[in-house]
Write a structure and sequence with these properties.
CATH class: Alpha Beta
Order of helices and strands: EHEEHEH
Shape: globular
CATH superfamily: Ribosomal protein S6/Translation elongation factor EF1B
Helix content: 40-55%
CATH topology: Alpha-Beta Plaits
Strand content: 35-45%
Number of domains: 1
Number of strands: 4
Length: 116
């Protein structure tokens, strides 16, 4: 059975826009290779962190929401650990309330963008 997950990645702030896009595409390709289904992706951009990681005070944040089988997550996280561009990541299994909340949040974001 497929579960809903979201993964937040924090990438090294010295990366170029192209390298950040490459990392996003790499994650999407990994997910496809593990038969996961991407629901949404968001690049939050360069953000200041509360504490430094690897002596960096900022990082590029990304959010991915997807469906996958539970056994996929450990394989996916092994690949994330191997990527030197990724400083931190967190994967959370979403319950039905979190899935509904994420859907409403995405709808608000798209309506704000179309009102600009």
């Amino acid at each position: 059975m497929m579960n809903n997950y979201e993964t937040v990645l924090i990438l090294n702030p010295v990366l170029s826009d192209e390298q950040v896009k490459d990392s996003m595409n790499k994650f999407k390709d990994l997910l496809k290779s593990f038969k996961g289904e991407l629901k949404s992706e968001e690049l939050w951009g360069l953000k200041k962190m509360k504490y430094s990681i690897q002596n960096k005070k900022t990082g590029f944040y990304m959010l991915f929401e997807y469906q996958a089988n539970p056994d996929v997550i450990s394989n996916l996280e092994i690949e994330l650990k191997r990527d030197e561009r990724i400083m931190r990541f967190l994967t959370v299994k979403q319950d039905k309330h979190a899935v509904e909340f994420a859907q409403r949040r995405r709808e608000k974001l798209t309506s704000k963008e179309s009102n600009k």
